[in-house]
């Protein structure tokens, strides 16, 4: 009698079990090389199933040494393409071919393999896969009533996060360091419990990472090389709440039940966002809405009437396509993080599905700003009309999000009306923020300070930097902007720059005024009352020094004094012109103090990218009218 075991039978230890029970007395066991290859691949990926299978092969070798078994390795190793397509049945097909070729009985714990083999006329010995009704995991001994998560890692002491929501402490929970063997036992217990019990399942099984859901535990098992050591992180919810437990519960119930909405639940990690999302899901279900969830992994603790979906084929886009066929009234989208997540959330909401998304954010407004650039600005209130911010397990802030065509706060010209997203406090109805486009940029403008008082206008916060940016794009020297009320500003520039800034017939400054919606008066620095009597001498010194340096064509007799220069500020760079010193290495100083060293480029200039630390220092020195010099390095 010949017996060919497949991979499932070897992993479950069924071959040695059959030999030792006497069922295969006198049989020759033919192990396909395809089985060895698959076990080797799984072991290399750090999966326990591979190691268990290899342990069974070693057990068979010992039986051969004891004269209890005849064992042969037969067939060929599968190609890389066959190995990668193992989930499609390529390896199983190779094993069936070997059983047929040797007129052997196929031993398997895989019901699909057994049925296919019978259909092909093979003799099949099918044994139920090993499983177990596990009530408890070994690592549950570390959990107390106030433990949210347990963290185990080879070579370290076990730790846990314990406490109440918002007041968690990360503390050691055992004096003994976890060894490699102990960690492997815990990991094996977790994975086998999930495989063998109806209370658990494998959510993700990739080389280096396995994520298990067992009862209300979500457990991540990380292995090298993905992690630097074997690590197990087990998390569970420590509270289950209803919507009545939160502030504004009555108003929020009415808002959510009134019609399908777009809601973002935001907060810091561990603040209680998912707990609140579970409460919302249960409430909506009780209100006779058809509620589904989208989670990866699935760990929301909701009732059986709420179906929990994960990423279909690893992609939430496919899950969304399937859900649109199911047509839920509301979908709870746990962990909206990446651009694709926001795109899926928006698509489903615009398709008419009520959406509740869970988002990491440190402020309520930050959750909404994460949509900017990912969703067309004017569509944001159609995608999200409610933002709930959770802090320490409590509802801290609720925002109502709408849109209006209006003149933004602080602007006065009627022709500046535009779509404005209004964010109001849900409880008081007071406007808190406005989001709109200003000079081709999306800006978020707070309307009140922390004490509830009115801050300076939106223009007062953003107009100055916009004016400076516009003027510096055409002026060569220093620019100073002073606001004169909400719709007027005075710009002080170098005398030589007046004509550049105003433009022919005033055309350039008129264009800037129309773009910004602000009247701009252009004057010289000498007219700036802030400059004082010392301004003229400082400016004059800088001007004459710059001219003198340029005329000499060198650093002069005393090179340590250097050449005075007037840097130019463009939209992207701070530029120092050094036409006569191409290829030379020089030091740039401000007020005699060293700033940086650079080499003059082939174009005869030094360019420093704006926004860099060096450029910031240089611009600050220019703003303070310091003397900028260049000396040989």
UniProtKB/TrEMBL annotation:
Instruction: Give a yes or no for keyword RNA-binding in this entry.
Output: yes
Q: Which stretches does the entry tag as region Disordered? A: 526-554
Keywords linked to the UniProt accession: RNA-binding
In what residue span(s) does the PIN domain sit?
A: 1-115
InterPro entries this protein is in? AAA+_ATPase (IPR003593), KH_sf_prok-type (IPR009019), Nucleic_acid_metab_PIN/TRAM (IPR052041), P-loop_NTPase (IPR027417), PIN-like_dom_sf (IPR029060), PIN_dom (IPR002716), T2SS/T4SS_dom (IPR001482)
Named from the GO MF annotations, one term is: RNA binding
The segment(s) forming the AAA+ ATPase domain are 259-394
Biased-composition ranges, Gly residues, are 537-554
| Highest taxon, organism lineage | Archaea
What the entry lists under Pfam families is as follows: PIN, T2SSE
Q: Report the leader peptide range.
A: none
Q: Which PANTHER family match?
A: AAA FAMILY ATPASE, MEMBRANE PROTEIN
Q: Which family would the database say this protein is a member of?
A: In the N-terminal section; belongs to the PINc/VapC protein family.
- NCBIfam families linked to this entry: PRK13764.1
Q: What is this protein called?
A: PINc/VapC family ATPase
């Amino acid at each position: 009698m010949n017996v060919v075991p497949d991979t499932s039978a070897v992993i479950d230890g069924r071959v040695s079990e059959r030999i030792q029970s006497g069922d295969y007395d006198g049989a020759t066991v033919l192990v396909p090389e395809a089985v060895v290859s698959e076990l080797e691949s799984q072991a290399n990926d750090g999966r326990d199933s591979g190691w268990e299978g290899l342990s069974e092969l070693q057990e068979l070798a010992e039986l051969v040494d004891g004269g209890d078994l005849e064992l042969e390795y037969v067939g060929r190793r599968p190609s890389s393409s066959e190995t990668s397509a193992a989930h499609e049945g390529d390896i199983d097909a190779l094993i069936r071919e070997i059983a047929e070729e040797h007129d052997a009985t196929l031993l398997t714990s895989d019901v699909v393999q057994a049925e296919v083999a019978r259909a092909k006329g093979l003799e099949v010995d099918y044994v139920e896969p090993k499983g177990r009704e596990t009530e408890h995991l070994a690592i549950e001994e570390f959990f107390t009533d106030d433990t949210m998560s347990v963290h185990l890692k080879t070579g370290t002491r076990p730790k846990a996060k314990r406490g109440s929501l918002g007041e968690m402490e990360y503390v050691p929970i055992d004096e003994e360091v976890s060894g490699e063997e102990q960690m492997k036992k815990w990991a094996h217990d977790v994975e086998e419990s999930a495989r063998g019990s109806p209370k658990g399942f494998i959510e993700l099984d990739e080389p280096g990472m396995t994520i298990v859901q067992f009862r209300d535990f979500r457990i991540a098992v990380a292995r090298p090389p993905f992690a630097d050591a074997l690590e197990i992180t087990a998390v569970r919810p420590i509270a289950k709440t209803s919507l009545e437990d939160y502030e504004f519960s009555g108003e929020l119930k009415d808002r959510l039940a009134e019609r399908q909405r777009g809601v973002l639940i935001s907060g810091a990690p561990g603040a209680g966002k998912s707990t609140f999302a579970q409460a919302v899901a249960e409430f909506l279900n009780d209100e006779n809405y058809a509620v589904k969830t989208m989670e990866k992994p699935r760990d929301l603790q909701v009732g059986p009437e709420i179906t929990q979906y994960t990423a279909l084929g690893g992609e939430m886009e496919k899950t969304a396509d399937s859900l649109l066929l199911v047509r839920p009234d509301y979908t709870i989208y746990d962990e909206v993080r990446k651009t694709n997540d926001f795109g899926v959330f928006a698509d489903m909401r615009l398709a008419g599905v009520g959406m509740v998304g869970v988002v990491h954010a440190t402020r309520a407004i930050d959750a909404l700003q994460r949509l900017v650039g990912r969703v067309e600005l004017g569509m944001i209130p159609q995608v999200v009309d409610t933002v709930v911010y959770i802090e320490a397990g409590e509802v801290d802030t609720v925002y109502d999000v709408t849109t209006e065509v209006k003149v933004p706060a602080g602007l006065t010209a009627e022709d500046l009306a535009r779509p404005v997203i209004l964010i109001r406090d849900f409880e008081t109805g007071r406007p808190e923020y406005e989001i709109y486009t200003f000079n081709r940029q999306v800006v978020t403008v707070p309307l009140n300070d922390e004490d509830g008082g009115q801050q300076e206008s939106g223009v007062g916060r953003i107009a100055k930097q916009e004016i400076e940016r516009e003027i510096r794009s055409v002026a060569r020297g220093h620019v100073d902007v002073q606001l004169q009320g909400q719709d007027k500003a005075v710009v002080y520039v170098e005398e030589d720059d007046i004509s550049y800034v105003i433009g022919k017939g005033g055309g350039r400054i008129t264009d800037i005024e129309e773009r910004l919606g602000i009247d701009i008066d252009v004057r010289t620095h000498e007219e700036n009352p802030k400059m004082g009597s010392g301004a003229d001498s400082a400016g004059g010194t800088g001007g004459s020094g710059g001219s003198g340096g340029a005329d000499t064509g060198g650093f002069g007799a005393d090179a340590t004094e250097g050449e005075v220069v007037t840097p130019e500020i463009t939209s992207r760079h701070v530029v120092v012109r050094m036409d006569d010193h191409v290829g030379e290495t020089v030091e740039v100083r401000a007020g005699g103090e060293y700033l940086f060293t650079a080499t003059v480029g082939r174009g005869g200039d030094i360019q420093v990218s704006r926004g860099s630390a060096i450029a910031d220092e240089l611009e600050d020195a220019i703003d303070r009218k310091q003397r900028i010099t260049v000396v040989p390095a």
